[in-house]
Design goal:
With 86 residues, the chain is an alpha+beta fold. It contains two helices and five strands. The two termini are 20 Å apart.
Length: 86
């Protein structure tokens, strides 16, 4: 299982270097083969559940309805990243 998580993490990390598909107040958004990644560079003062809620709301600002999508949480190179997928 660890190898699978490492390869997923490496893939997400590589796509965080691409041009974003959108930028909102808190998140920078990327398209990856796994799903849509919402990345935040600075560590917020809110907990991850609140941050997830913010990501879902900001996704609507760039025409993404993420409310019913599965999601995973990663910490990659001092970034918090939520990946949304079906």
């Amino acid at each position: 299982m660890s190898n699978k998580m490492d390869s997923k993490r490496s893939l997400i990390e590589a796509y965080l270097e691409d041009i974003p598909i959108g930028i909102t107040k808190v998140f920078t958004w990327y398209a990856t083969p796994i799903g849509i990644a919402a990345s935040i560079s600075s560590l917020p003062v809110v907990d991850s559940d609140k941050l997830l809620e913010i990501a879902i709301n900001e996704g609507r600002e760039i025409a993404l309805d993420l409310s019913k999508e599965e999601n995973e949480y990663y910490k990659i190179n001092e970034r918090i990243v939520f990946v949304f997928y079906s």
